[in-house]
Amino acid sequence: MIKKSIVEIEKEYELEIPKIMRIIKKKKAQKVLLQFPDGLKPYSTVIADEIENKTGCNCMIWLGDCFGACDVPLEVEKLGVDLIVQFGHSKWNYEKEKGIEVL
Question: Domains in the chain, ordered, with CATH?
């Protein structure tokens, strides 16, 4: 697979990177967990680098499967993340249950 730039990736997918970065900055999130469907995983490091470089946060990429908005990793709170970003899924309110917002 040829490595693509964030500009090339965003031509193919509606990632809402500016929205994600605004929320990270607004919430002052330092540790952000990124979850991707399998089709986006090859681009995950490019996306994470873009977010980190523009916000100063530390992005962690979840390499396990992600089957939808309710598929939050078990015991994710032990990772100490401030925010979970799930790409390609509907929003799910995990914040009420565990205190971590999911975008």
Answer: 6-102 (3.40.50.11840)
